[in-house]
Amino acid sequence: MLTSVWLLLRTMLPLNMCNKVMWQWWTLLGLLFMCSLGVQCVELTFELPDNAKECLYEHVEKGTKAILEYQVLVVTGGHYDVDAKVVAPNKQILYNEVKKQFDSFEWVADMTGDYAACFSNEFSTFSHKLLYIDFQVGEEKPLEGLPEHHTAMTQMESSSQVIHENLNSVIDYQTHHRLREAQGRKRAEDLNERVLWWSIGVTFAILVIVIGQVFVLRSFFSEKKPSEMMNHGFS
User: Fold this and answer.
1) Which of 85, 120, 139 is the last residue of a domain?
2) What was the pLDDT predicted at 48?
3) How many domains does the chain have?
4) Start and end of every GOLD domain (predicted)?
C-alpha cells in the first residue's frame, strides 16, 4: 500500500515535496506504534470458586477519578451473578451490590490510600465463575512529548492525538465485543449440551415405547398351541 502511495505522489508532486510527505507518513506510523506500546492495561480475568471471596487493591490518590467495571463471563452451573463491593481505606463502603451480572461504578477518591474491590461467590455452593474486571484510575495519559509544547500543536501532532484517542475507543469496543462473544458462546455451548442430553433421553424413551408396543401387539396376534387350547377348555 505504501509503495502505491509513493508512486502516486511521485507522479503528482515534485521529488523534494514527495519525500517530505512520505517522511511525515512514516513519522505518523512511528508515533502510532509507540502509542500502542505505551498503552497500559489494568484489565484482568480470574476464576472465582464457590463459597469464595476475592479482593483486589488499587492505590488511588485524593481527587483522582476511578472507574470499576466487572462482568461475569462463564459459569459452571448456576446463575451469572456475583456480589460486588468497593471499600475505601477508612473501611467506608462506597459501592455494594448483590447478585449482579455486570455493572460499572465511578467515583472520585476523597482520600489517598488503597481502595479494595471485593467480589464474593459465597452464596453459591457448587458453581465456579469466571470474572472480568476493568479497574481504571486517573485520566488517559497524553502522548509523550505533547505536554512539553507551550505553543499550539502542529497538524501532525493533533492528528496523532485524535488517532490515539480513537484507537483507545476501538480497543475498548473490541474488548466488550469479545466479552459478549465469549459469554454468548458459553451459553450456546451449554444450551447445545442440554439439547443433546434431552434428545438422547427422548430417543431412549421412544425406543423403549416402540419395543414395548411390538411385544404387546405380538401377544395379541400370536396363535396358541393346541395343548394350551385343550388345557384351557378343560379348565
Assistant:
1) 139
2) 86
3) 2
4) 53-137
Residue 145 lies in a domain: no
**Which residues are CB-contacts of 57 (< 8 A; sequence separation ≥ 6)?**
114, 115, 116, 117
| 10/95 same-domain check | no
- Distance, in Å, from the CA atom of 180 to the CA atom of 104, rounded to the nearest integer, reads 16
The string of DSSP codes covering the chain is: -HHHHHHHHHHHS-HHHHHHHHHHHHHHHHHHHHHHHH----EEEEEE-TT-EEEEEEEE-TT-EEEEEEEEEEESSS-S-EEEEEE-TTS-EEEEEEEESEEEEEEE-SS-EEEEEEEE-TT-SS--EEEEEEEEESPPPPPTTSTT--SPPPHHHHHHHHHHHHHHHHHHHHHHHHHHHHHHHHHHHHHHHHHHHHHHHHHHHHHHHHHHHHHHHHHHHPPPPHHHHHHHHH-
Nine cell digits for residue 165: 484517542
- Rounded CA separation 103/105 (Å): 7
* Structural domain harbouring 33: 2-38
pLDDT in tens, 206-225: 999 999 998 888 888 776 66
CB 118 within 8 A of CB 52: no
112 and 127 both lie in a single domain: yes
Residues 99, 154 contacting (CB under 8 angstroms): no
